[in-house]
Specification:
The complex is a heterodimer. By secondary structure, chain A is an all-alpha fold. Chain A is built from 13 helices and two strands. Chain A has a two-stranded antiparallel sheet. In chain A, helix 4 packs parallel to helix 8 and helix 8 packs across helix 10. The longest helix of chain A is centred in the N-terminal third of the chain and has 32 residues. Chain B is mainly α. Chain B folds into two domains: 45 residues, no CATH class; 211 residues, MetI-like fold, CATH 1.10.3720.10. In chain B, helix 10 runs antiparallel to helix 13. Chain B is globular and about 75 Å long. Classes of the chains: A mainly alpha, B mainly alpha.
């Protein structure tokens, strides 16, 4: 991509040294400086906004995490790494990590394959596929808060739609306490998350499937490959970049999960559905242990960072250019 | 001719019948919670507990009309709209300038800067929520719509810049050369030529910004203590807390709260889906 807004018609990233060439060095240097100022000038509003409202708060959280601090005035009571030591002995936080892994695992094993199966189904020419597509995706655009309130009522113990439906088809004993029972709360939450998010992943896969040239599967067909072989050996490899992005978004979504949990259970019963973000919120805004809550923020940041870098290094390699997100960082 | 066509279509239906069954079942699971909420809104709470699954009898409209007749619901719609519009304007304007510079200039530090922004894509907002709250408090932006608009815009920058940069790069360099020969400076080129050409991309990122803002929960929850600026997600949660025993009313409230988002989806489906998938896969 060449640009005419170049000091010397040189294109590409100009991080290297200037090319050796004749010409008046001084005026060239001045021209380059002016060019640089113009280019960076366009960046200033974005840098100011991003710097003050994204980077600065993150740096401040890092600073505050080394203090015992109630959130008023400046942090003064420096306690070194004590907040982090405490964090990794805190059964609630360790439980958060476990629940995060659980949700990631369930998503990878159930939700994403389900989304993929439906994407493959809807990639065929069947009647009503536009309607199905629209319907499956619709929950994704609803706010988590609305979804949460809706399902807290549908899964209301003994009196919600879920129990009535199970009762009506003769499965009285199957339902029960749903969100109110420590042993079923995560499963119920995962059901709701699947309802809300699988459509998004399905849409990603559909976009990926549609970019696979039909000639390839047709060629495989002519070579005598069955449906499963065509899927396994042609479609799946070509869909791999999309799958990798989708997994990435799903994991990041699980790490940051807050809205849905906060609205439905607020982490309960007895922390059994708490997530890292919920724990952070509890300490930061309910118990005024802001230093400790900052340490949770930093830990979440660290986990996201390690995951993102490792994923980029080992999984995405080159097919992630410029990375990704969705509205607010992705659906789980 | 006609018979042949019907013949073929029945054969096709026959082959795809299991598929249709599965899709229909999934579709039902997706639609039932929504339909149940709509119907329940037409019952009284009393009727809802006596007749949870059947059609309303009689149809009670007062749940819906009461909410629509109350000023507080419209106030939520108003704040949500204002905050979504403000966020969109800020994030798209600021991102377009930055994306222009990333796409059409080569300058020292470009890759570093771009990496900085793309790093922002990987980090969940929840990570920054607490320090951001402290910052907004010290800036006196609590209970102020700007306290939601500006951070939402800031967190929307990475995604918007990435999408717009991709689009701006596709505009042919010849156009820029011609404009430069005609004495067009970078700013004029940006404003008079690039932006008008980028209208579809601007539409896409605007739609994403609107939806993101509309559904945001954590930030307005932190920033607005007073009900004055509450947005719809906050209002829904509060309403449930306030009327927790009146199921039917809460259902009606939920349904009305969903309508704007679903209406927006039906109008802007193409931009929304295209934008989300492009944002996630292309970059």
């Amino acid at each position: 991509m060449t640009s005419t807004f170049l000091p010397d018609k040189r294109s590409g990233p100009d991080t290297g040294p200037p090319p050796p060439s004749a010409g008046s060095g001084r005026s060239r240097a001045r021209r380059r400086a002016r060019h640089w100022l113009t280019a960076v000038g366009f960046q200033v509003p974005a840098l100011v906004l991003f710097g003050t409202l994204v980077l600065l708060p993150m740096l401040f959280a890092l600073y505050a995490s080394f203090f015992r601090w109630g959130g008023f005035g400046m942090p003064e009571d420096y306690i070194g790494g004590d907040n982090f030591t405490r964090l990794f002995q805190d059964p609630v936080f360790l439980g958060d990590l476990w629940r995060c892994l659980l949700l990631v695992g369930l998503s990878l094993v159930l939700q994403l394959p389900f989304a993929l199966a439906l994407a493959v189904a809807l990639n065929q020419k069947i009647r009503g596929r536009a309607v199905y597509r629209m319907l499956f995706f619709a929950p994704y655009i609803l706010s988590e808060a609305i979804t949460g309130v809706l399902f807290s009522m549908i899964f209301a113990p003994d009196d919600g739609l879920a129990d009535h439906v199970l009762g009506a088809i003769g499965l009285d004993g199957v339902g029960g306490q749903w969100f109110a029972d420590p042993s079923t709360v995560m499963a119920t939450l995962f059901l709701v998350m699947t309802w809300k998010y699988f459509g998004f992943h399905m849409m990603l896969y559909l976009a990926g499937l549609q970019s696979i040239p039909a000639e390839l599967t047709e060629a495989a067909l002519i070579d005598g490959a069955g449906p499963w072989q065509r899927f396994r050996n042609v479609t799946l490899p070509l869909l791999a970049p999309t799958l990798r992005i989708s997994v990435f978004l799903s994991v990041i979504g699980s790490i940051q999960l807050f809205d849905l949990v906060w609205v439905v259970t607020a982490g309960g019963p007895d922390h059994h559905s708490e997530t890292m973000a919920v724990t952070m919120f509890q300490y930061g805004f309910k118990r005024y242990q802001v230093g400790y809550a900052s340490a949770i923020s930093v830990a979440m940041f660290g986990i996201s960072l390690v995951f993102a870098l490792a994923y980029q290094r080992f999984v995405l390699r080159r097919d992630l250019q410029g990375a990704t997100t969705t509205m607010r960082g992705g659906g789980a | 001719m006609k018979t042949r066509e019907t013949g073929r279509s029945t054969r096709r239906t026959g082959r795809t019948l299991p598929l249709h069954l599965v899709l229909g079942l999934v579709g039902a699971v997706m639609a039932v919670p929504l339909g149940y909420a709509v119907l329940s809104g037409f019952k009284s709470t009393d009727q809802l507990s006596r007749n949870p699954i059947g059609l309303p009898d009689p149809w009670v409209t007062s749940n819906y009309t009461d909410i629509l007749g109350s000023g507080s619901f419209w106030q939520l719609v108003g704040s949500s709209t204002l905050i979504a519009a403000g966020t969109t304007v800020v994030v798209v304007a600021v991102s377009a300038l930055a994306a222009f510079s990333f796409a059409r200039f080569a300058f020292r530090g470009r890759e570093v800067l771009f990496t900085l922004f793309t790093m922002g894509l990987m980090f969940p907002f929840a990570v920054a929520a607490l320090p951001l709250f402290l910052l907004l408090r010290s800036m006196g932006l609590l209970d102020n719509p700007l306290g939601v608009i500006l951070p939402q815009a800031a967190f929307g920058l990475p995604m918007t810049i990435v999408v717009l940069r991709g689009f701006f790069r596709e505009i042919p360099a010849e156009l820029e050369e011609a404009a430069t020969l005609d004495g067009c400076g970078p700013l004029k080129f940006f404003w008079r030529i690039l932006l008008p050409m980028a209208r579809p991309a601007l539409g896409t990122v605007s739609v994403l910004a609107v939806v993101g803002s509309w559904n945001n929960f954590l930030l307005p929850l932190l920033v607005f203590n007073e009900p004055t600026w509450w947005t719809i997600p906050i209002g829904v949660q509060q309403f449930q807390g306030q009327y927790s025993a009146e199921y039917a009313r809460v259902f009606a409230y939920l349904v009305l709260a969903m309508v704007p988002a679903l209406a927006f989806y039906s109008v802007a489906e193409r931009q929304l889906v295209g934008g989300l998938t492009a944002g996630a896969t292309k970059g």
